[in-house]
Amino acid sequence: GVGEATVPPIVDFMRRLGLEESEWMPACGATYKSAIAFRDFHGGDEPKTWFPFESIEIFKGRPLNRYWLHKHFTDAAFADRFSFYDYCHFVPALCDAGRTVAAFPEAKYAYHFDAGRFGDFLKRFAVDEGVTHVVDTIESVERAPDGSIESLKRRSGEPLAADLFVDCSG
């Protein structure tokens, strides 16, 4: 299937569903994602720039980005040696070493997973929880006076009313 990259709010979403990483990640071919890697971001010799999900590190009560900005503009050797995120975060070093922040309490991370396997897993989970899964072609949407969806007119002819509709048409 297609690989999907996510952002940190999905971790909370999965926890709210009560799904354990040890259960769903192997079923979906998932891995942890601690940052986003931008290739050739600066167009120079730097092969990639990491954008961590974590906040800027603090040193002696001040964010490290202030130290980096000062050194970057006052010390040419420093500017050539340290990229912003490599200096201000521990995450790029972990990523370069093939490690993740997921083991750290309160860490911000996300996932990569197989989209097809993830969709199938969520469908099975939802059906097991009592959700009715319907596959049909929607001909039209019937709306209430306030604009909310009242029901869907399906190709099969049966109207479908529900409390929640999820459009998975892509």
UniProtKB/TrEMBL annotation:
The lineage of its organism: unclassified sequences, environmental samples. GO terms for molecular function: monooxygenase activity. Pfam families: Trp_halogenase. This is Tryptophan halogenase. InterPro entries: FAD/NAD-bd_sf (IPR036188), Flavin-dep_Halogenase_NPB (IPR050816), Flavin_halogenase (IPR006905). PANTHER family: FAD-BINDING PROTEIN, FLAVIN-DEPENDENT TRYPTOPHAN HALOGENASE.
